[in-house]
Amino acid sequence: MAAPRRKPTADRTHHGAVAASSIDESSSAYSSNDQAPIHRHQLGQTPLPTTNVLKLLWLLVPPLLLATGLSIFTQSFFLSRTSFDHRSSCGVGSAGDLLKDSLGLNEDHVEFLRRSGFLSDGKKSTTTSATIDNNYGCWVPRRVDSMAILVVDALRFDFARDHLPLSVGSRLFPSRNATHLGTSKLYQFVADPPTVTMQRLKGLTTGGLPTFADISGSFGGASIEEDSWVEQLKDVPWDRRRHHSLDESKPRMAFVGDDTWVDLFPTQFDDCHPFPSFNTRDLNTVDNGCLEHLPRLLDGLVGLKQQKKMMQQDHIDIDASSFELIVAHFLGVDHVGHTYGPNNPHMEKKLHQMDVMLSTTLNSIDNAPQDSCIVALVLGDHGMTEDGNHGGGTSEEVNAGLFVHFSPGCNNSEHDDGVTGEEIPGSARAFDSIHQIDLVPTVSFLMGLPIPYANIGGLVPDLLPTPRYDTPQFTSFTTPHTATALALNAAQVWNYLHTYSQTSRDLPLNRLRELKALLDSAALVYRDAIAYSQKHTSNDEQHFFDSTAYRQAFGLFNLFLAESTDLGKQVWTQFNEGGMMIGIGILVLAWIMATPLWKRSVRNEFGAIGFLTKSADVNGSIKENVKGSDECFNSSVRSFRALELLTALIFMIFQCGVLTFGNSYIEHEREIVTFFLSILCLLVFRRWYFTSGTHSPTSVATSTGSNSVYLPLIVALCSRMNDVFVTGHGLDPSIRLHATHHPIVFLSSLLVLLLLRLRWLSPMSKSVGTGGILPVFIDIMVIICLACSWWEKHSLDDSRNGFSMARFSMMAVFVGLMQSLFSLSQHWKSPKRGIWIEQAQLASFRVMLFLVIVTGPSTASTAVLIVIQCAALRFMMQSVGARQVAAPVMAAIWRLAIRHVFFATNHHCSFNRLQYSAAFVATDTFHFSIAGSSLFMNTFGWEVLGSILVLVNTRASCSPKNGIGSHVWDWFRYFQWTEMLASCISVSVMKRHLMVWAIFAPRFMFAAVFTAVGLLLWVLDVILMELLVVEYKNSYE
Questions:
Q1: Radius of gyration from C-alpha coordinates of the chain
Q2: Distance of alpha carbon 706 from alpha carbon 819, whole angstroms
């Protein structure tokens, strides 16, 4: 933003003349000879740089190289894993063929498993010792008749454990008078980053690990192309997996809730009721829709429907559709977290609503008839942080809850055969904490389906009820059933890994050999167990299945699956290391070419301070200002300036380079930036305060006046005030926990913002000749409408949402920006260059108003502090003489101040801090383009605004007395390029680090966006400045 106007002084020319000379000075910075500033009276004597297409292309080489290198690196780093269109087969003999191919079983082994009821892949036994004609299932016997999946979005583990007393608590800790008949288990349900809904649903249905780059799919993704149990349930013939007790007519699949499921599976659900999911301020629409349809769907659930028929209730339509799967996805808990946080009364109310719903549903399943088996899975797709967000990899985000409840007819009592999986050292699996992908093979076997082809999850044995046979002898032993299921799971995972290794080199050969050896040892033990059973079957021994070998195979298969999952997590992303190295090489070349030290005036500045050479000066300004001064004083000033420059360079090396290599540094970047900014401001203040004394009167004269010594402290103080006193950014205005959400605070802040606009920017509007009062009126209307909108949103009355006033303020901002751009287009060729610089500052103010709209009431106070801070920074840039601030130091202060605003507005370089509510400040309807642009500006707008201000103020501060002003922008974007290069190197080095997707990759992506902003502005600046030079040259020829 602009600084207050100053009256002309004796040592300054008219503003228009100074602005005109500034163009010549700044344009000379692009010349190959790096000439001294060219004043307007010199235009007829000093030749201007030759501006033609070739030179313009040469000036654009560094940004083009940067864009090329960044593009190559990004595509190489975020390459998705190889996906296959293969599908696991449910054909006759498919399970036996898989065991023979992967585990080395022979035909006798497979036939024995079929006769014993462990396999159900459809081949009839040639003997009459046992019949399994009614054992249906693709690979193993089907365990349940139907399934209800109730997804409570963002159901953190502690929510499920502590805040659902009616549904979960009463079944985990039943009272003496409890009448619950079913069996229940609660697990920590561990998700893998990124913890966003679409990626979690992909993992929950395919058993794979979606790559981090797929996070873009959460904002309008495509359907799943890989094999999944949802697709298998739709496509596998009913007679291949129907239990003999079920009807011959195929039941249907039903869904209600979050429309993300429909994006992933557009045609699979027969009875589908999706609701829009992106409006995080809408707490009830999706949940109310689920509550409306869920009772009807439950009445048609296979097992419960048979009970309704037998009861012959008149109000039940016995001809209604039957469902073998019901999916209900509730969003209220997630939206409350995003809007109010997890520790708000709204969360208690929403969790109670979920508790009542779950209790009713589970009670219905408890009343299912004894001859049916129904399972309900109550799960969270991810958790949430203490501020209600998610997307990263912290423990609060990855630890969701999974509550599994079986009806009484499932025979899922605790295993009493002593099987724990601990028979082999190192094979124990903590089933009280399971990975989300482990649910995929479990669901597949429960429903009698083949495991999806690309699954790398491991079966959860505790969730497999004993198969229901007509012959009791086959239901007496759990261990052989579980060992066979694990053997099929291990065979499927190995088949996938082996196929993957044939098409990609990502899987290390040594790890594959280790896994193969482990699998072979498990298969050997398993074959011995089968041979032992075959031998004793012929002797008609009763307990021929219960052998130690089955238990050992059980543990070894578990160990193999755990190691396979770990391998998949380590190498799932396919890194193109050659492409990454090429991209980094191009970035290094662009970084070297863009170094400001190539310019002679920059080297002179370093020399004047005491670096590089001792005899250099900056356009003679240092010599002129120190003439006649005490030598000791001059030495002290030079020492102060050298200390500032050295400190700024060290801080920038750390913040732009070293910081990107440490996950702890990245997590605490806000504190680091605040500290660095405070230290640099204090160092500048120290020198200014020293020069304000009586040591050398000639050195104190500055363009900013004697009271400007406190400007550095004002910059630091504004940042600290923004840090400490301004909270609640991105949260709903009705939240009364933050002082800045109180009407008195945000109304007074808007009033101060309006006064600053009238005081500092009104003269600019009048000078443009566009009506004078119109631009002022536009900005007044924006602020008044915004105040009304926030006042309505602060009300507890839900009918007063403030949308109409917010929309009007947005439209007014858009009109104001159009007016500013029109004025810029009309006056950018004018000799009075100050006019379009002022219009650019006015446009920046309006951009800031838009950011205030999409961020919330807290930002009104932040905006006031930013305006004051920017005014102080502009004054500092215009300082000359002994108070002149070196361009690298000034650029570092600007950079730290801008980045501090990013953090102070409750943002961070991670996706769990995205403020999704920004998409719905003016509407409750999701529109991708509008919501996406609002969210982008909410997140990156402060960097956009800050970069524009640095560029505009750099061009505005150029003057005959301050020849280095044009270099502030050069150093500013060079620091950002350094951060980009260091981020690329850090993610390359850390690509196998445990926290690469949780911390390092998000930091790289944010740095890439920050760099893209500066890149576009640099290209625009180069083109416009060259065109201006041509225009001025032609006007004087």
A1: 35
A2: 37
